[in-house]
């Protein structure tokens, strides 16, 4: 089966409007790693330790070049995108040839919508699929290129998200800086399990209610 665009705008020139929507999406996506870290305090401690060791007193201009050292923090983001993909259903495709998928005949011209969310939470492919466990990516070959079909946060094939490089570099850097510059806690003695995880799903998935956390500055002397 070939993946074919249903829409006319060319992929190389996404409209400004589309660009804005996706930027907003990347921005919204920032809540998810933060909230998962609040729900999993051990993960928060490990990620924060890693970031603070790597960024230790370094000039902020140098942070980007240190991202390669943040193996654990990047696994946290990978796991967040598994459980909370902003596009749970991939963009619609048209089947260009009649084919057989897992015993199902898919006729030419059928509109196909892939449920990436369901595959990323399937116990057929993941141990304790509903659990947030960043370490699962330590020895996993699942990456963002869309070749492992159980993990498609950026889609796959010809429709793979063209903003992937920009989205990841921004997301990883901002999460790392939030961990470096702030200590995070829950308001009014709230417990991690009380955090509201409601999601509104439309074309994209996003938190239903705003996230409220207490950020206390972690003061770092900076070398220039
Ligand atoms: C964490 C952030 C993001 C995630 C998880 C994400 C994920 C996705 C996914 C799953 C698709 C559909 C791929 C498919 O159906 O196979 C997609 C398409 C797309 N993304 Fe992203 N995206 C993100 C950020 C961005 C950003 C920042 C931009 C632009 C600057 C962008 C631009 C696009 C465009 C233009 C398409 C449509 C491609 C097409 O029509 O073939 N995305 N994205």
Note the main attributes of this structure.
alpha+beta, two-stranded antiparallel sheet, Cytochrome p450, binds protoporphyrin IX containing FE, disordered N terminus, 33% helix, 224 residues, 6 helices
What is this structure, in a nutshell?
Its main location: membrane. This protein is an alpha+beta fold. The protein has one domain (16-217): Cytochrome p450 (Orthogonal Bundle), CATH 1.10.630.
Textual characterization of the structure:
The protein is an alpha+beta fold and 224 residues long. It has one domain: Cytochrome P450 (Cytochrome p450, Orthogonal Bundle), CATH 1.10.630. The chain has helices at residues 16-28, 31-39, 41-55, 71-83, 116-120, 164-181; strands spanning 93-94, 99-101, 104-106, 111-112, 182-185, 199-201, 205-207, 214-217. The chain has a two-stranded antiparallel sheet with strand order 1-4. Strands 2-3 form a two-stranded antiparallel ribbon. Strands 5-8 form a two-stranded antiparallel sheet. A hairpin with a 3-residue loop joins strand 6 and strand 7. The termini are far apart. Protoporphyrin IX containing FE is lined by residues 11, 14, 18-19, 22-23, 25-26, 29, 81, 86-87, 90-91, 153-156, 159-163, 166-167, 171.
């Amino acid at each position: 089966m070939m993946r074919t665009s249903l829409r006319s705008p060319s992929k190389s020139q996404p409209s400004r409007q589309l660009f804005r929507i996706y930027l907003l999406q990347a921005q919204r996506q920032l809540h998810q790693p933060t909230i998962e870290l609040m729900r999993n305090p051990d993960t928060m401690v490990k990620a924060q330790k890693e970031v603070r060791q790597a960024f230790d007193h370094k000039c902020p201009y140098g942070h980007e070049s240190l991202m390669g050292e943040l193996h654990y923090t990047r696994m946290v983001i990978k796991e967040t995108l598994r459980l909370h993909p902003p596009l749970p259903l991939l963009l619609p495709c048209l089947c260009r040839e009649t084919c057989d998928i897992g015993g199902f005949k898919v006729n030419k011209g059928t509109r196909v919508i892939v449920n990436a969310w369901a595959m990323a939470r399937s116990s057929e492919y993941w141990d304790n699929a509903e659990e947030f466990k960043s370490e699962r990516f330590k020895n996993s070959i699942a990456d963002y290129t869309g070749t492992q079909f159980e993990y498609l946060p950026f889609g796959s094939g010809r429709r793979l998200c063209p903003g992937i490089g920009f989205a990841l570099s921004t997301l990883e850097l901002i999460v790392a800086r939030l961990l470096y510059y702030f200590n995070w806690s829950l308001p009014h003695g709230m417990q991690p399990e009380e955090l509201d995880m409601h999601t509104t799903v439309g074309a994209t998935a996003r938190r239903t209610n705003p996230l409220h956390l207490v950020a206390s500055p972690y003061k770092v002397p900076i070398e220039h």
